[in-house]
Amino acid sequence: MKIQILGGGCPNCKKLADAAKEAAGELGIEFEIEKVTDINDIISYGVMMTPALVIDGEVKVAGKVPSVEVLKRLFL
Amino acid sequence: MNWKKEGQSLLIVVAIFLACFYLPLESERFENALFEALALTKWYAREHVLLCLVPAFFIAGAIAVFVKKESVMKYLGANAPKALAYGVASVSGSILAVCSCTVLPLFAGIYRMGAGLGPACSFLYSGPAINVLAIVLTAVVLGPEMGVARAVGAVLFSVVIGLAMHFIFIGEERRRHAARTAMPEPEISRPLWQNALYFASMVGILVFANWGKPRESGGLWMIIYNSKWIMTSLFALGFALILGLWFHIRWWKLGIVTIIIAFLAVLFRETPMIPFAAGFVGLSILTAPRQDETGEWFNQSWGFARQILPLLLFGVLIAGLLLGRPGKEGLIPSGWVASSVGGNSLRANFFASFAGAFMYFATLTEVPILQGLLGAGMGKGPALALLLAGPALSLPNMLVIRSVLGTKKTVVFVALVIMMATFTGIVYGSLF
Q1: DSSP secondary structure string, B135-149?
Q2: If contacts are CB pairs under 8 Å, which of residues 401-420 in chain B contact chain A?
Q3: What is the mean pLDDT of residues B190-197?
Q4: Which CA distances in Å does B326 have to B48, B74, B140, B392?
Q5: Quick check: B413 pLDDT over 90?
Q6: Which of B69, B101, B109 sits opposite A8 (nearest CB)?
Q7: How far apart are CA B243 and CA B236, in angstroms?
Q8: Where are the alpha helices (DSSP H) in A1-76?
Q9: Among B269, B317, B326, B374, which residue's CB has the most CB atoms within a 10 Å radius?
Q10: pLDDT (tens digit, 9 = 90+) per residue, B59-117?
Q11: Nearest to A22 by CA among A72, A66, A63, A60
């Protein structure tokens, strides 16, 4: 599965990336993670509030860092 | 050896070496400046961190968690009425943009997917100036009138700049089509009035704990000043009630914390800072281990603190080193400051706006820098001009804005910001 983290590089984006890695790791999902930092690319996903989490091209989270437990449910 | 990669490090090493080699330790001015840097840092640590910044971090964290941004963005969407969009864009920075790094994506989003160029520019201009942390620190350090002027100036002129941008580029605006938005539905939590009371109690604690001693004795301000800790305690008790009633914190835990704080308050009657700090330690212990939204609240608050405090420490040290405390001199002679931005001339205001627009200020560091400049003889008008042009724009910021708007609109926007800031500075400087 493809995980993308959208955000200009503020600390929350890093936190979201770490949490997503942890959640996917605990579930034993194979994934590749990509950081999208360019503002125009972020906007092209329809996201205004960073950090955002995109799973397989679909925006799942915008504007906050959910807990690992919540992320796990999103991955399933 | 990879020269492209290593060359930069080498340059930095050489620069640091040269700086150390020629360190002007013997010069009296440098010695004074070092002392001033540390003295200013000490003053901040004593006066502003516990009473002002710590509660402000908790408020900023609460805004990040409990304010449903989706409900605000509704008014900035593609279908929102235009007049409403300008109004919301100019004030919503205070709750949407707690962290300066969120301003740019929101700006780009409002421009591309939402209400368009005008409201986007309004938001970009006012957002960084009216977030809670910036207003609180400005009002406490630089005086309430500067805090209010900053907020009011930013809001008023953001609408003017937004409208100007809209009408300058009205042709392109007509052809624009809003892109699709992905806005996850907000989950419903507690009713709005409960959230409002929750925020009000925290703001109450912040305001009364920082109530400054009025210049003249007697009158209402003095009465409030004398009872500021009673007021703070009342708000804190109300806050504890709210946490127990609506935020599912166990009553017996709240009770223990309250009793400990009350005990400390009686024991250390002369230093209210001790029970005040204990209150926040208690709040952290109650919220930090939780998995629900209150745990998230603590996490966000801590996130802001971790992100902003190091920058602020660095900013205060540099400001102290270069400019000294009010009335004392740092490395830069006061005469230079007074001659370039002293008084309230058009030139001084323009210079301050121009410099502010291009200079990069890390979150909140504009406050100690400005404090130093004011102490060294900067006029109040130019100071406000710098505050208005400064945080909204910087050279790296402009590059991102340019990638969203294109060169022409960016140049017009920057020019408008500098003009507006200059103008507001002159008006403010002639009033105060």
Answers
A1: HHHHHHHH-HHHHHH
A2: 403-404
A3: 82
A4: 16, 45, 15, 26
A5: yes
A6: B101
A7: 10
A8: 11-27, 39-44, 68-75
A9: B374
A10: 888 887 787 767 777 788 777 788 888 888 888 877 776 556 677 888 888 888 777 88
A11: A72
The whole-angstrom separation of Cα B219 and Cα B160 is 39
- The 10s digit of each residue's pLDDT in B218-276 is 677 788 888 888 888 999 999 999 988 888 888 888 899 999 999 998 888 888 888 89
Q: CB distance A39–B306 less than 8 Å?
A: no
Q: What is the CATH number of the domain that holds A7?
A: 3.40.30.10
> Using CA atoms, how far apart are residues B128 and A1, in angstroms rounded to an integer?
37
Residue by residue, DSSP assigns B276-342 as: HHHHHHHHHHHHTT-SSHHHHHHHHHHHHHHHHHHHHHHHHHHHHHHH-STTS--SS-HHHHHHHH-
Q: Is pLDDT at B411 greater than 90 in this prediction?
A: yes
More confident residue, B156 or B175: B156
Q: Would you state the structure tokens that stand for residue B219, as one six-digit string? A: 């009158």
Confidence check: pLDDT of B185 > 60: no
B19 at interface of A, judged by CB pairs closer than 8 A: no
Q: Is A37 on the interface with B (CB under 8 A)?
A: no
Return the residue matching tokens 């997917």: B113
Q: What is the pLDDT of residues B348-372, one digit of tens each?
A: 999 889 888 888 777 778 888 888 8
Question: Which 8-state DSSP code applies to residue B380?
Answer: H
Q: Which of A48, A56, A59 is the best residue to mutate to test the B interface, defined by the most B CB atoms within 10 Å of its own CB?
A: A48
What's the DSSP call for residue A6? E
- Point out the residue among A11, A39, A50 whose CB comes nearest to the CB of B400: A39
Q: Could you report the per-residue pLDDT of B116-139, keeping only the tens digit for each? A: 888 889 988 888 778 778 888 888
Q: Which residue of A has its CA nearest to B306?
A: A11
Q: Distances in Å between the alpha carbon of B195 and those of A30, B68, B234, B310?
A: 41, 11, 18, 31
Q: How many domains does chain A have?
A: 1
Question: Which residue of B98, B112, B302 to mutate against A (max A Cβ within 10 Å)?
Answer: B112
Question: Does A36 reach chain B within 8 Å, measured CB to CB?
Answer: no
Q: Which residues of B touch A63 (CB under 8 A)?
A: 69
Report the residue count for chain B.
432
Contact B432, B145 (CB under 8 A): yes
- Domain extent at residue A63: 2-75
Average pLDDT over residues B192-202: 85
Selection from B157, B167, B238, B171 nearest residue B420 by Cα: B157
Asked if B27 has any chain A CB less than 8 Å from its own CB, the reply is: no
Q: Which residues of chain B are within 8 Å of residue A47 when distances are taken between CB atoms?
A: 105, 109, 182
pLDDT at B130: 81
Catalytic site positions of A: 10, 13
DSSP alpha helices (H): ranges in B169-218?
A: 170-175, 192-209
